[in-house]
Amino acid sequence: MTLAQYAMLLIIGWQTYNIARDGGMTIAGASGQLALIGLLQFLPLFILTPFSGLAADRFDRRSLGRLTVLLQLICAAVLGWATWTDAISIPILFGIAVLLGVARGFAGPALSALAPNLVPKDILPTAIALSSISWQVGMIGGPALGGYLYAIGPALPYAVATGLFAVSVVALSLIGKVPQPAIRKDQRPIGAIVDGMKYVVHNKMVLGAITLDLLAVFLAGATALFPVYARDILQVGETGLSQLAMAPAVGAALTALWFSFRPIKTGVGPKMLWAVAVFGLATIIFGLSKSMPLSLAMLFIVGAADMFSVYIRQSLIQLHTPDDKRGRVSSVSLLTISASNEGGDFFSGTLAFLIGPVAAVVAGGIGAIVTVGLWSRVFPVLRTTKTFDPPDNLLEDDQKQDRTNPQEA
Q1: Fewer beta carbons below 10 Å: N end or C end of the chain?
Q2: Is the residue at 248 inside a domain?
Q3: Sign of the torsion angle spanned by Cα atoms 99, 103, 108, 109
Q4: Is position 349 within any domain?
């Protein structure tokens, strides 16, 4: 599934930027079109994510996952047909971006909340690392697949993505039944959503970890501007675009592989803060680079540092959240991730429109470093957290939940 997603997203951005530039837009104007792609993906996520988190806690998470992958399959097929018939246009690309936002809004909480039900809690950090490896392999292979297939035939990446989404639907159908959290009959749906958000706000560890990622990646997200760098700054074309998109994924995948064998056990909070600072510094150097090898090296470090912080953040959030709230808390986490990714794409594209792409990337990297300094003071728990171990009262709550909900959905 990740292979198909990242192959498709890369080509959507590339087609949007090229249609805009070939239509006579300036670099700044075409960058603004990339900003709109990010905004159109983010708005459905922003609106739907609180409800999709509730759905992940109320309904079969496997079924939700299958439905969202099916919607992405349809999107890939439509884009493939439109490209094949030379009917592709910016309005079509914008419309598909909205549908992808809807699909990902429901997929994230369902699939994220499903993971802790499939493995014992004591090996969840290792399981997250292994899951991250498969995700990062998709992030590596997806852009390579998309860019090189596009060089062969513009419709080919979408055709392959359609087939990969079909395989994903089958794979999700093979997952057996998993425990379903008990539903409080006295709690209305809106109350359940608010309850999940209140938990995030009151748990300073979860809130600090989530918002740190939100601001750092929102400010320093350079991925939306890869088409600008590939065509007009580094001048490396669609194959170079694939390499730019692959570089951070390679760094992240190797980092996740390392953690699968050597998981972090001590000093988790301070290490997360340092990783985000390195992420910001590497982003600054990438923004200033005019050399393809240096750019790839910095993006490799960006991916490795991001994976370092993601591994710690996801482990802390999952282990510091009761099972009956994991879907809703995961939805809040997904909302901030989407705000930092798709919302960050809108921010970086808009900033590039206003001050130029290089200045936008450099300013974002500086912002990420400043965020680390502020968050280490606003949320001191991030500096003082040494291990992944959750509080004793949370362990007791989960044990009670296990005793009161032995049936499987």
Answers
A1: C
A2: yes
A3: positive
A4: yes
